[in-house]
Amino acid sequence: MAFFSRFFTPPERAKLPSLDEILTSRNLPLDLPGLDEHTEEFGHLNGPEREHWGDALLDLHSHGWPLPPQWQDAQYDLSPRLVPTWVADRDGFFSRPHFEGLSLRLVVCGKVMPEAWLVLWGVTWEDVFERSLDQLRERSKNHPFQRQASGIYRADFGDGHNASRMLLPELWKGLFPGQNTFLAIPSEDELLVAPQVLLPQLVEAVGKTLAGPGTRIMATIYQEVNDTFMPANLQDPHPIAQPQRELRQSDLVEAYQAQAGALPAELGDAVPPGLVKTQQGRSISIAVWTEGRPVLLPDTDLVGFMSASGRPLGIYFRQTLPRIAELRGTLVDIWGPRRLRYEGFPTAAQLARLECFATADQMADLFKSPGTSRPRPAAPASEPASSGARSAQASSPVPAHLRGLSLGVQSDD
Q: Using CA atoms, how far apart are residues 142 and 157, in angstroms rounded to an integer?
């Protein structure tokens, strides 16, 4: 009998950790506000699930975030939101990359949802997102897009979150049948739709929105391609290529400006990016590195160098900075676009290794204060004199779309 009892006696179950044990092991208070509303769900969990549940409580407590409302109530008040990716990274709430430069997160009962809420509810992101889209679709009924005097269409759903309707193509897909569709969400309460022939009017509308008081999202214009979205790829000589370039650059400047305010001053100078115009009319991003303190360089096309006394030393293509092996940049640990921290300052001999965009004199003319004196013409870039020069340019680390550009001859305007 003893032999057979080994087969029929059920194995002893491991003791499940109690709620108090879960909280105590994580140094969490036993009287967390709102915890009583979720204890019933806790009783149905196995051991690993209880540990995961406790980790979710710890994550909320360490961030100072509240516990979620009960799922029975929360499931009826869900709203998707598109935000710049750097905003999603900065705030730390649960988000998913959606389109280039944009991330998707969820507002539940008026509050942005942390990931830990999903754990406490015992539901998946996919289920919550689909429910939120259904509710957004229901709230969008009987609110057609408004045709503007310019010919473009503007969303007007009356809840302050028009941009989120970009997630519902069925609302705007038929506005311009048979034509390429372009969209913009410059602010949280703005969704603009236009065909290609009305891109100048769309650019103008984006500019007006950015000058207004609304919460900015993205200036970049998006294009629908095979049921997805990407920044509109408009190449020169398209008349909107340069405006689109400047809109995208302004989004990057916005991110870097917000990032600079969050960086500790003791790390170094978090220099902001700016823009310069080439003779060809193309705008190029630039950061100025001044001698004397460590610098936190943004990822710009150009780097201008300034001595400690304020004397311009020239502007160079940032992609050639690795040629100065003695100066190694270290990645700054922060949300948003990339920055590299540099200590020291390049010598004149080291700067000579870089590919030049503007000489010291050209840089001085470019940065000269208005009204002091008229900028004198700068020498245009010379053409490569030999096949060897052309070969060197072809192997340059400078991206192809920036090769051959220089400050050129500055106008008298």
A: 9
